[in-house]
Design the sequence.
């Protein structure tokens, strides 16, 4: 383990606690008091102060203690990155109208009325990389260098054909509103490993191309819906305060803030003595935690003290707040401090037109930093118990949307297959899993539904997806729902 | 049939430590509803319940007739004979292949549960209907509580407390009570004057008078509206994908008005659900039907309408289910309900009510997706209606005059050599014919034309482009050669100068925009050159109107030639200081050819292609005029005739002038009112829906008509099978749910938790009521009072139960941590809106204007931008100014995919789905909001200033602060604590006055210049400290 700044793991007795844990239990009685304490102190402290709680019913032996999900919103083209189809080169412009009619897949409102569906081979060169010989496009030279760390799934599939429902399915397990996100399920199932940080952190990375087609993302992708609100993802921001309202107003020096909080603590204690409401004590503690976060979070967000080598690894852009590279670096800093799940959203991957120009720029935004992140985790010994996932919400069509030329094309949405990679804890590196047909249209071998991916992620994190449930509307609600979902054991190490 | 209260209580006692049955003591007599149904629901109904889709072995245990039916082997239940009941045999079995529930179900029965089931069968296995499906009957008020009882509510509460041997608490101290009830009824704190008056008046009636006063305030209506907006998921954006602004705030104002006039809840229901269907529906009733339009919608490029129509209908059924029926009906969209007797057919029959309307599946990303109504400001209603009629009359008169103008047209045509310009209208602030001094040059439609090459000529004041305003510039242009250079502009000097510019490039026309933000630019250049020697009409439009597409476009002769994108892409207003200039900008002359212009106009409106063509009609008319009369075609004559009518026919012009005056007036009225999304039924056919396999839109099965669930009392046969019939059914006296669900939500509003904890689920797996007979008494009282919501609230807040002190002893906390038995008064953290509004009120910043467009208070940069699409009208958040920063929180613009962040942190829902009960967490991020969010800092400063103006000594100042925030003066020891902070702050700010100035600059409002900055800063810190006490944050 790399050294961790001491204040991140501050033991309880350094907290400005006006009462002991025993007093707390005595005064707050059962029920709410314990619940409040649990939310306040996190599992570690609870475990120390009370008889060891039995593991939740969904617990299984974990491979990963934490995960980083790199979410490429808009859907990167599998045909131009991972799903190599050399046979298509000499079928340029072949009209797939009849083929598509036979396939009967829904077409989006954007190409349904196209007269022709000309086949658009990728103009990018592919080569085999690593021991595994995985085919990877020239757009991802850094990713190619770590081919043997990756398990590339070429046979992902989804049920949704448009971004909004597809993202919802990918990140909440269903196309319906009102369901908790993957990250909030993990936070709920695993709890927090650091009392000072949320279990689930969201980073929004800026894309650099002004031309990219940008899709909206909604807070529901990291929301907690009916799970308790504390499990929702907390956004760490790429500009302004790293966490909303973290910085004190100008003109309030630290010692003055301290003095003010001491007064709040003293006055709240009097309220507590008079009213006995345990929420009062919890609130005081939350103010104390907020105060500690004011020093620890800026330090966490300050990448300036990273050694030069870090920036060589992630790329120079990592010095600029809000870039994908700095987000990747931030993700490493977060997981090494015990955050369970970090999700990086990078938008702009929706290449309906001018794909060669725009996809190249999108790849440039993320390629080296992804490599940097995986290597960095490896060097620090964290990759063994950290899972990294990289992918979009669906695939893209083999036929061209809009005008097809020798050098330019666009691709519409395609739900039947897409590519995604995983690396790290419990994953068999150097694997290419699943196959698609000649058109990268249908999966011909080893399909992996999003539910299967979710089941696999939970499995690696030490959760039985069939048992991780929360009672809501009378039902045992689950991330993977009621339709069949299976752990993809073939890709597990 | 109904079980006794004592049995309910036994079960409810169990709820304190877990689920409804986990630790219930073994009861004296077993009740199906209280003891058996929870066990069966948890463990058996998934496979042996109402859902036919997942039912195993064709066995159903949720109804007696099925459970006791003869089967091949033993019946599942033989009443009175556990040994002859397969159910009992199977649950006690020790064999994995026989035992129920089966091991792979991951469910198992506890020994005491098995024993309960056995005893229940032995005692006759009597079933009961689920309590919530039986109509409430008013129970007698218990003779409990003695003198403590103030209202019937108290007798019910006291009866239970006596059983629990818990004494009720003393009354809350007057000041704390006043603070509680004022915050509860208005969402605002009492003023120090109100406190003083209340403390001075010891009469028993004083409190009741306060309640009546508060209930009559608009603040109360606003506060109650806020809860309702959560329930109906009101927001100011469409919600899905581009998530553009939508105009539905008049509906929000209707709700405020409804609470203000205490509209009976049955009418409140009917008008929202079906106001549009009421005979002779008024404008208000149509606006009320905007309830149906609170559904989140999409217009995503590839979205499939049929799919979204299904999603919208489900969302509407879910919302109605949670808000009125307390049923999780949505569960039945894919399969029969697992626990409640709601079938798939029931679900789709309900969905049918909401599918028979004219709302398009795709919202079009516009603010005013049809159907809509325009809602004039209240004062303008009469005039608006008259105006519409007058406009219609004049519009009809124009063609009548045209039909009689043939003789005048002929005589005009015989003598016309040049044309007259189109008349200037109210939205045309500038119309310059541009006559040259020297008339010997090129002629245009209006005579000699102005040549502009080389020179520059100021023709008007700067023309800024503001994102919420529309502006257009039109002119006639004729070129020779292939000129390049500026044509018309209002743009500051330099390459990055802010403003806009029409320019020529090798004879092509282009448009350039710069500024607003350093990184912003937009360009458009026409594909083809203007034809030399011919007159063209060029029109640039920056169209932000909600009625059109928000485009930036350049038209030549009515055709779009250089679309420069969408107004939404412009990050901020473009405000040049350079005047409107014809020809060269300072450093860039025109080269490569010659240019003549005529008739430059600035319009305060946007144009679409057809309108642009009309505006440029002079080009065609001029061409037609130049054709020799004998060679003119009918088309030529038509063009000339229309131009004659528009510019030269005095009777038509007179009508046009009148019409323009009315339109100018209409525009004024339109700005004072607003558009509201409303509901409108299809005129043909009957409502229907298809049952969908697994809820998939593309797997339709049987077609069903509109209808209500079979388990509930039916709609009367004569009732219309539409939303109106449905709405009346919801509030029919037979309906067992609506009144209960509504009084329960009211109870929850005041006590934090409802009598039924699961406020949105009164079904089999929902929580049981803690006080079932009180719930029923309230429900019947509410209904029989004429659904008088204010009466219901008054009953609750004047009860002794509500008026108790909130202080808790360790013993009481241990016995009743959640305060479900109410041996003490309610106490919980204020909601997000109350916290902000309290700060606004205490500081004097609050602007208490009611209703209107949503406002934009402070928000950290980037919240919208980091999630929004480029095209979205809600991509860039620009905080408002002045009053808009200090309105009550319910007026804050609500963007669904990125709700107001401070409110989000304080547990406000996203308004994407119905929310009848907010989460209430206690987190460090919340502490950061009330410590650091600029409004809270600014409010601390203004509260400090207020205290300094009101008192000169420290004690007096502190009183002024705590009276507002805590409703009381601090005690001696408390004062000592605050004084330490005050002295520390004074020392700090005396030592570095710059710090004081920094602190005083937070927020847009001015600091009182008469107050010494160091002292004001120190008191600001104290005010913030008090504002962050648990006591301030909690009611």
Sequence:
């Amino acid at each position: 383990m790399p050294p961790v700044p001491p204040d991140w793991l501050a033991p309880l007795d350094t907290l400005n606690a006006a009462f002991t844990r025993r007093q707390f239990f005595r005064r707050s009685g059962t029920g709410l008091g314990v619940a409040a304490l649990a939310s306040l102190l996190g599992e570690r402290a609870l475990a120390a102060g009370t008889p060891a709680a039995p593991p939740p019913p969904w617990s299984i032996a974990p491979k990963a203690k934490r995960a980083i999900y790199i979410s490429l919103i808009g859907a990167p083209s599998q045909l131009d990155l991972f799903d190599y189809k050399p046979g298509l080169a000499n079928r340029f412009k072949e009209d797939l109208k009849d083929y598509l009619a036979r396939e009967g897949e829904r077409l989006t409102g954007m190409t349904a009325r196209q007269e022709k569906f000309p086949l658009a081979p990728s103009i990018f060169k592919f080569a085999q990389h690593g021991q595994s010989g995985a085919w990877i496009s020239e757009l991802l030279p850094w990713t190619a260098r770590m081919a043997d760390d990756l398990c590339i799934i070429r046979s992902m599939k989804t049920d949704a054909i448009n971004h909004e429902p597809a993202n919802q399915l990918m990140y909440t397990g269903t196309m319906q509103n009102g369901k908790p996100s993957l990250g909030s399920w993990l936070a709920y199932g695993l709890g927090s490993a650091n009392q000072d940080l949320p279990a689930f952190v969201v980073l929004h990375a800026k894309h650099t191309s002004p031309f990219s087609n940008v899709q909206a993302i909604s807070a529901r992708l990291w929301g907690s819906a009916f799970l308790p609100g504390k499990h929702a993802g907390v956004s760490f921001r790429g500009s302004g305060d790293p966490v909303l309202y973290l910085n004190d107003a100008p003109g309030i020096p630290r010692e003055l803030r301290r003095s003010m909080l001491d007064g709040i603590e003293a006055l709240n204690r009097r309220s507590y003595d008079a009213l006995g409401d345990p929420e009062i004590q919890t609130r005081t503690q939350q103010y104390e935690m907020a105060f500690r976060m004011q020093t620890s979070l800026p330090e966490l967000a300050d990448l300036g003290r990273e050694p030069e080598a870090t920036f060589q690894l992630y790329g120079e852009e990592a010095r600029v707040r809000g870039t994908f590279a700095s987000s990747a670096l931030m993700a490493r800093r977060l997981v090494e401090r015990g955050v369970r799940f970090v999700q990086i959203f990078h938008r702009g991957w929706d290449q309906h037109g001018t794909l060669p120009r725009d996809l190249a720029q999108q790849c440039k935004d993320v390629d080296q930093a992804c490599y940097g992140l995986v290597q960095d985790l490896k060097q620090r010994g964290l990759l063994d118990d950290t899972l990294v996932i990289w992918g979009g919400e669906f695939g893209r069509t083999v036929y061209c949307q809009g005008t097809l030329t020798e050098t330019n094309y666009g691709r519409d949405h395609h739900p039947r297959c897409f590519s995604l990679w995983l690396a790290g804890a419990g994953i068999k590196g150097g694997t290419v899993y699943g196959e698609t047909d000649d058109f990268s249209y249908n999966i011909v071998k080893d399909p992996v539904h999003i539910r299967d991916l979710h089941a696999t992620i939970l499995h690696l994190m030490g959760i039985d997806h069939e048992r991780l449930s929360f009672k809501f509307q009378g039902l045992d609600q689950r991330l993977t729902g009621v339709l069949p979902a299976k752990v993809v054991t073939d890709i597990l190490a | 049939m109904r079980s006794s209260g004592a049995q309910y209580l036994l079960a409810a006692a169990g709820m304190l430590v877990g689920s409804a049955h986990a630790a219930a003591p073994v009861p004296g007599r077993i009740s199906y509803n209280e003891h058996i149904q929870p066990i069966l629901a948890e463990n058996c109904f998934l496979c042996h319940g109402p859902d036919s889709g997942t039912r195993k072995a064709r066995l159903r245990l949720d109804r007696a007739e099925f459970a006791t039916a003869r089967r091949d082997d033993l019946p599942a239940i033989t009443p009175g004979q556990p040994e002859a009941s397969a159910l009992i045999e199977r649950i006690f079995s020790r064999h994995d292949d026989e035992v129920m529930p089966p091991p792979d179900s991951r469910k198992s029965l506890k020994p005491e549960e098995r024993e309960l089931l056995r005893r229940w069968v032995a005692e006759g296995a009597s079933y009961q209907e689920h309590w919530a499906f039986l109509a409430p009957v008013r129970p007698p008020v218990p003779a409990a509580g003695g003198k403590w009882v103030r209202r019937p509510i108290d007798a019910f509460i006291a009866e239970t407390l006596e059983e629990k041997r818990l004494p009720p608490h003393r009354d809350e101290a007057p000041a704390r009570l006043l603070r509680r009830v004022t915050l509860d009824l208005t969402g605002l704190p009492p003023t120090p004057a109100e406190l003083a008056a209340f403390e001075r008046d010891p009469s028993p009636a004083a409190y009741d008078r306060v309640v009546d006063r508060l209930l009559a305030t608009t603040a109360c209506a606003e506060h109650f509206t806020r809860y309702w907006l959560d329930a109906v998921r009101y927001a100011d954006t469409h919600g899905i994908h581009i998530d553009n602004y939508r105009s539905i705030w008049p509906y929000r104002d209707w709700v405020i008005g409804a609470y203000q006039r205490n509209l009976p809840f049955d009418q409140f229901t009917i008008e929202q659900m079906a106001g549009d269907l009421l005979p002779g529906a008024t404008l208000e009733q149509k606006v009320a039907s905007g309830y149906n339009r609170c559904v989140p919608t999409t217009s995503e490029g590839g979205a499939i309408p049929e799919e979204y129509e299904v999603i919208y209908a489900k969302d509407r059924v879910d919302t109605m289910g949670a808000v009125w029926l307390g049923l999780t009906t949505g569960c039945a969209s894919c399969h029969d309900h697992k626990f409640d007797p709601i079938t798939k057919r029931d679900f789709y029959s309900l969905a049918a009510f909401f599918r028979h309307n004219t709302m398009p599946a795709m919202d079009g990303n516009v603010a005013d997706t049809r159907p809509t109504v325009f809602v004039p400001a209240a004062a303008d209603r009469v005039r608006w209606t008259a105006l519409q009629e007058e406009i219609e009359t004049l519009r009809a008169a124009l063609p009548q005059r045209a039909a009689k103008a043939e003789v005048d047209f002929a005589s005009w045509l015989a003598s016309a050599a040049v044309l007259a310009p189109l008349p200037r209208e109210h939205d045309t602030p500038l119309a310059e014919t541009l006559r040259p001094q020297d008339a010997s040059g090129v002629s245009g439609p209006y005579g000699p034309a102005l040549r502009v090459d080389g020179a520059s000529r100021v023709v008007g004041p700067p023309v800024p482009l503001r994102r919420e305003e529309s502006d257009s510039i039109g002119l006639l242009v004729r070129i020779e050669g292939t000129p390049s250079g500026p044509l018309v502009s209002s743009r500051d000097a330099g390459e990055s100068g802010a403003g806009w510019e029409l320019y020529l490039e090798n004879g092509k026309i282009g448009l350039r925009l710069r500024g607003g933000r350093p990184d912003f630019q937009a360009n458009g250049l026409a594909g083809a050159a203007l034809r030399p020697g011919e007159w063209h009409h060029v029109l640039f439009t920056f169209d932000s109107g909600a009625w059109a597409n928000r485009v930036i476009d350049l038209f030549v002769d009515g055709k779009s030639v250089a679309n420069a994108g969408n107004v939404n892409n412009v990050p901020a207003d473009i405000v040049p200081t350079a005047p409107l200039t014809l020809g060269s900008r300072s450093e860039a002359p025109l080269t490569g050819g010659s240019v003549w212009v005529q008739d430059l106009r600035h319009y305060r409106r946007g144009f679409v292609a057809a309108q642009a063509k009309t505006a440029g009609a002079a080009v065609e008319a001029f061409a037609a005029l130049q054709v020799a009369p004998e060679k003119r075609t009918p088309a030529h004559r038509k063009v000339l005739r229309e131009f004659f009518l528009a510019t030269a026919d005095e009777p038509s012009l007179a009508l046009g002038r009148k019409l323009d005056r009315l339109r100018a007036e209409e525009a004024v009225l339109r700005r004072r009112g607003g558009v509201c999304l409303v509901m409108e039924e299809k005129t043909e056919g009957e409502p229907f829906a298809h049952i969908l396999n697994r809820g998939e839109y593309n797997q339709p099965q049987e077609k069903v008509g509109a209808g209500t669930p079979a388990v509930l009392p039916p709609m009367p046969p004569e009732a219309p099978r539409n939303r109106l019939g449905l709405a009346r059914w919801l509030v029919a006296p037979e309906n067992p749910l609506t009144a209960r669900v509504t009084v329960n939500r009211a109870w929850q509003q005041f006590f934090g938790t409802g009598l039924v904890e699961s406020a949105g689920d009164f079904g089999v797996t929902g929580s049981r009521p803690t006080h079932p007979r009180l719930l029923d008494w309230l429900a019947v009282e509410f209904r029989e009072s004429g659904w008088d919501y204010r009466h219901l609230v008054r009953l609750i807040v004047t009860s002794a139960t509500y008026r108790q002190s909130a202080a808790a002893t360790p013993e009481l906390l241990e016995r009743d941590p959640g305060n479900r038995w109410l041996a003490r008064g309610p106490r919980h953290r204020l909601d997000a809106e109350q916290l902000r509004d309290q700060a606004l009120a205490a500081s004097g910043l609050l602007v208490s204007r009611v209703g209107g467009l949503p406002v934009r208070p402070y928000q950290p940069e980037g919240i919208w931008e980091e999630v929004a699409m480029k095209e979205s009208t809600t991509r860039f958040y620009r905080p408002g100014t002045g009053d808009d920063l200090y309105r009550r929180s319910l007026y804050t613009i609500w963007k669904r995919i990125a709700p107001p962040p401070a409110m989000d942190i304080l547990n406000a829902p996203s308004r994407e789905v119905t929310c009848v009960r907010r989460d209430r967490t206690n987190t460090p991020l919340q502490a950061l909001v009330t410590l650091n969010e600029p409004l809270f800092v600014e409010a601390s400063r203004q509260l400090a200033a207020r205290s300094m103006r009101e008192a000169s000594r420290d004690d007096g100042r502190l009183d002024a602060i705590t009276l507002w925030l805590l409703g009381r003066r601090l005690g001696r020891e408390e004062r000592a604590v605050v004084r330490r902070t005050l002295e520390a702050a004074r020392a700090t700010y005396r030592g570095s006055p710059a710090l004081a100035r920094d602190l005083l600059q937070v927020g847009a409002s001015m600091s009182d210049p008469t107050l010494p900055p160091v002292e004001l800063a120190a008191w600001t810190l104290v005010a913030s400290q008090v504002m962050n006490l648990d006591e301030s944050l909690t009611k």
Remarks:
- The two ends of chain B are 41 Å apart (CA to CA).
- Residues 5-128 of chain B form one domain.
- The longest helix of chain B spans residues 381-403.
